[in-house]
Write a structure and sequence with these properties.
Blueprint: H1 2-5, H2 8-15, H3 19-63, H4 94-102, H5 112-120, H6 123-130, H7 134-170
Helix pairs in contact: 2-3, 5-7, 6-7
């Protein structure tokens, strides 16, 4: 760092080298410092990522039971039934509905696509499918919305960090 900060002409005179060679030397030293800083930041980010994985794994192991059955998706067909029918049709799979009913924090067990499907679902239809009241179904949708927002923020943060790291590589 000291060699980079020394005026080029003074360093050239002290080392008996041309200013061009000194400029190359200082640029190389700056690149080494930049690379070390990027490596340090990468290690910190990796440590944070690994810590987040451990936390997520511990939460999921407490909340979720491993599902042995393969995931089944179901198509929804409009049968023309009225909304007063107690067995409302939803676009959610049986597995998702089971997770919503049985898990204490189902929003942590679902992938992002399933969270989006829960949010798109009509609250009354969701309540009917789960056998819950509309208020409880609404609270579930709110929890799913918060979890999905948190995940999207994490993705945006990672993209921002990547673009920041790429931007630093462009500058000497």
């Amino acid at each position: 760092k000291v060699l980079i900060d020394v005026p080029r002409s003074d360093l050239a005179e002290e080392l008996a080298q041309s200013e061009t060679k000194i400029q190359v030397l200082q640029d190389t030293l700056q690149q080494v410092l930049d690379r070390r800083e990027e490596e340090r930041q990468s290690r910190q980010l990796l440590e944070l990522y690994l810590e987040a994985l451990k936390t997520e794994d511990s939460i999921l192991s407490k909340v979720a039971e491993p599902e042995a059955a393969p995931r089944k998706e179901m198509d929804v067909v409009d049968t023309g039934t009225s909304s007063t029918d107690t067995s409302a049709t939803t676009a959610l799979s049986d597995q998702v509905l089971a997770a919503l009913k049985e898990k204490p924090a189902p929003e942590l067990c679902l992938d992002s696509q399933d969270l989006e499907l829960v949010l798109k679902e009509d609250a009354a239809a969701l309540a009917s499918a789960l056998g819950w009241d509309k208020q409880k179904a609404g609270a579930l949708q709110e929890a799913c919305d918060q979890e999905l927002s948190k995940r999207l923020k994490q993705v945006q943060t990672l993209h921002s960090l990547r673009s920041t790291c790429k931007g630093k590589k462009m500058f000497p």
